[in-house]
Amino acid sequence: MRGKAVFAIVAIGLLTWCWPGATHAGVDKEKLLKDTGVYGTFAVFKVDEDWWKLDKAARASAAAEVKAVFQKHGDTVATDTYLLRGLVEKADFFVRVHSTEMLHNQNFLVDLMGTTLGKHLVNTYTFNGITKGPNYVPSLPDDLKAALKTPPDPGPKPYAIVVPVRKDAEWWITGQDGKNAMMKEHTEATTAYLKTVKRKLYHASGLDDLDFITYFETAKLDDFNNLIIALERVKENRHNRQFGNPTLLGTIRPLDEILEILSR
């Protein structure tokens, strides 16, 4: 993906949503997705070649083992699953994990990677972050604040995009007034896409080699593309040392469906 921009509408943490995926009784997923101070981990995997050499019965048995791990940790983590295979070269799927303690995310992933399927997974990327409250909303004019309350269009949004971001040193030493001005311009560029692109921000400084992890959902990839193009033109764009690399584009799928695809 060309261009570099942190999405202000994301950066200010204005909206959060409950997305479909593999979750279980015992954890309040909707609350985790709305609260601040929640830890998010994006674990990205590629299946190795030896996996496909197993017979179908062995792959089906391994899939059942994975389901048991998700159930075991259902009291401490909320999970969503995504299919990347066919859209991303170096990965087949990823799991987004939320909990109130990073330790819970780690314990879940350790058990997942200890399964028969897990031993055939290459962990190509892992991103860690935490949700925080808004930074820039208070400084925005009232008309822009009102625009930001625009509800998303109803209906499913099957595509998910994850974009890791790293800012440059100049950004961090820029005064608050300077940041506010850039974020106002940035936010104005996003308002045309509030209905069709959902977003969520994770702060990653100190928890990863990144500063932010931006997560998006949409049914209209053309709108997402146009959003990126609009954000390439704002001044804040100059302060991104990294935007993407990797960019993960996938589809939201239930765990059972992903396991069925991997068991064929």
Spell out the key features of this protein.
alpha+beta; Alpha-Beta Plaits; 2 domains; 9 helices; about 25% strand; elongated; disordered N terminus
Structure description:
- The chain has 264 residues and is α+β, with helices and mostly antiparallel strands.
- It has two domains: 8-17 and 135-248, Alpha-Beta Plaits, CATH 3.30.70.3420; 29-130 and 251-263, Alpha-Beta Plaits, CATH 3.30.70.1030.
- Helix content is 32%, strand content 24%.
- The chain has nine helices and nine strands.
- It has helices at residues 8-11, 29-34, 56-72, 102-113, 142-147, 169-173, 176-190, 221-231, 255-263; strands spanning 39-47, 78-83, 93-99, 121-130, 159-167, 197-203, 212-218, 240-243, 248-252.
- Strands 1, 2, 3, 4, 5, 6, 7, 8 and 9 form a nine-stranded antiparallel sheet that branches.
- A hairpin with an 8-residue loop joins strand 6 and strand 7 (212-218).
- It is elongated and about 60 Å long.
- The protein starts with 7 loop residues before the first helix and ends with a helix.
- The model is unreliable at 1-24 (pLDDT under 50).
